[in-house]
Specification:
By secondary structure, this protein is mostly beta strands. 6% of the residues lie in helices and 24% in strands. A four-stranded mixed β-sheet has the order 1-2-3-4, with no helix packed on it.
Length: 78
């Protein structure tokens, strides 16, 4: 379902990813498509789930899962 949802995202979109399956969409955005992902807990510029060596316990999405940031990412009060 996440892969199918990712096919609806176009270059330049800003997308709010909710908790659960929507968080998986970040892993299915095709290379070359620039999308700004936002998490409900105050992250703008969220990347895909981290590889083991990239895990930072301070970077979590609204579902309390570790995520990555893309260049230019920001945090703000939710």
């Amino acid at each position: 379902m996440a892969a199918r949802a990712a096919r609806e995202i176009e270059d330049g979109f800003y997308v709010n990813l909710g908790i659960g399956i929507p968080t998986l969409v970040a892993n299915h955005i095709p290379a070359g498509v620039t999308v700004t992902l936002q998490s409900e807990n105050g992250l703008l510029g969220m990347g895909p789930y981290p590889r083991e060596e990239e895990v930072d316990a301070d970077l979590v999405n609204a579902g309390k899962e570790t995520v990555t940031f893309v260049p230019g990412a920001a945090t703000f009060a939710s």
